[in-house]
Amino acid sequence: xxxxxxxxxxxxxxxxxxxxxxxxxxxxxxxxxxxxxxxxxxxxxxxxxxxxxxxxxxxxxxxxxxxxxxxxxxxxxxxxxxxxxxxxxxxxxxxxxxxxxxxxxxxxxxxxxxxxxxxxxxxxxxxxxxxxxxxxxxxxxxxxxxxxxxxxxxxxxxxxxxxxxxxxxxxxxxxxxxxxxxxxxxxxxxxxxxxxxxxxxxxxxxxxxxxxxxxxxxxxxxxxxxxxxxxxxxxxxxxxxxxxxxxxxxxxxxxxxxxxxxxxxxxxxxxxxxxxxxxxxxxxxxxxxxxxxxxxxxxxxxxxxxxxxxxxx
Length: 313
What we know:
By secondary structure, the protein is of the alpha/beta class. The protein has one domain: SGNH hydrolase (Rossmann fold, 3-Layer(aba) Sandwich). Helices cover 44% and strands 10% of the residues. The chain has a 5-stranded parallel beta sheet. A two-stranded antiparallel sheet has the order 4-5. A hairpin with a 5-residue loop joins strand 4 and strand 5 (190-192). The protein is globular, with a radius of gyration of 21 Å.
């Protein structure tokens, strides 16, 4: 009996060791884009710089949150010329559950004069796993709120990746992936350096899709609004332009608009009804720098007309 107990205890001690060694071997051998059970390299990007910079930010005029369509659309240089200091608290695939975590962690520290939330319809039907993977691979410290959110997602890939990163973090900090076609500018903004990468995406036929409202995402969205309102910070919701064919695939955009507009005391801009063309898009969901210039000046005009900030045009 004692021999059995010793072997059983040894087995229990060896399981996590073998698991961790297996995770490391998997990440080192399997190319990032092929990784399925652990997702690390493919999910590292310029967001690493964003979450290094954010610890030095406070008292900005505009705090922007949301997915990649946010940190690729708000150019702090353009807003700076209009007299507004801007920081983009964005991350790839950021859905309301990630935004809520970031709002709870940073809103009181940054103390913005205005909160701009970049929303996309598909994020409301997401389970949030993709967004946690991007955050997980681009931040250097996991606090209790982050760990709790990841565990509540109940996703084995998240658990594997979290375990790998926590052990790897004992030896080195994550370095962002770097690509020639884009560059990190400042204050959370990532700029595309070329007008297009692949124009074939504009000729693809996209299947029709309905915007669904997942309970966890919708509830997180409502709590974000409550948290910002409690601090008497003006809120603006923005949909950035996407390629017309990609936008037209959604069967119920009006339902989504009505839901957003049902919240009193907020401003909402859906730029998919504005005059943007595919020539101002880098791909189907992100603008090139020409589109960003046009988009940012449109927002500056709107913010000025709403008297949200003393912005000069």
